[in-house]
């Protein structure tokens, strides 16, 4: 009997592994060695890198450039901690990663973008590709060169065929989602005038909200990011002319970045996000050593510095552990978050898919992108909503009812697969 149970368990395990293999393809890494001479390097001085799966057939002139997420580093100490892992050194990056969700090359899992040129740009600068400091401290040997990495990657992809793009999307999740918005106009300017170019930001909108103690901790944090990396000169000028650079990265009033949406600058973008958004930062700048799974609620509403006794620790790990009072505060945060989006309006160029799933980064996870049990709004999956928005089949502006009303939300802690590498 016991042997039969073991065989049954092994059969289930094999089936699960086969399903994962079928849903994802593995793409090797490309190092930009020639970028080093231009000073376009990771925090440790190693060359930038990306993964490139070439398009075919009708997708040969369509390009999807996705930027990896992974939080930020706001000072020398937190940036030094990244030098020894993949978020600060290409030497520590996996030689191949899985492409799934919007990056998948399987038509059944990604019907509208499967045969595009799909690129995953690895994240190793800690500034959402905005930093550019010429001087390198001889002691720390840290390089703050994120903006140069962006320029070097774009130059390389243009030479490999992107200069002929007819369709193009710049995308990303979390810090990568912020990248897609901050560089949206810059990306558009590189491509042919007649091309359809849009910006997709998944879980990359971070509001300027008070934490549980009433302090604006997140504002101070982003101010430090901008100062450390010299980011101000590489932020959209149409925003920095009206706002402090630290607020431009927070998008408190000018534009939204979270869902597959972009901003008022670009007018051709879409946001994709969960209103109770999971935010995972592997280098956790917020002191909470027992918890590497962070969310906006954890980093903005209840960061470690605002919760020294750990009252929110269990809740932040699993929403089922939250008390009624904590859930009330989280719903209040959701309301504030949605209020921050009202300034954006509902242009036909913009899209919005805001579900109430307790999740983070949903476009590159097959389970949330497109499967039989994927999250839906108005009977529409994220994959369908993004494709309809990009090809302008219909306008999609949907905001979910409050948690936990949506039965298609499974409220698992979804994370991009490559965010686990090196942990």
UniProtKB/TrEMBL annotation:
Its EC number is 3.1.1.-. One of its GO terms (biological process) is cell wall organization. It comes from the Eukaryota. It is an enzyme of class 3 (hydrolase). It is found in: Secreted, Cell wall. Keywords: Cell wall, Cell wall biogenesis/degradation, Hydrolase, Secreted, Signal. Residues 1-24 form the signal peptide. GO terms for molecular function: pectin acetylesterase activity. One of its GO terms (cellular component) is plant-type cell wall. The keyword Signal applies. Hydrolyzes acetyl esters in homogalacturonan regions of pectin. In type I primary cell wall, galacturonic acid residues of pectin can be acetylated at the O-2 and O-3 positions. Decreasing the degree of acetylation of pectin gels in vitro alters their physical properties. Belongs to the pectinacetylesterase family. This is Pectin acetylesterase.
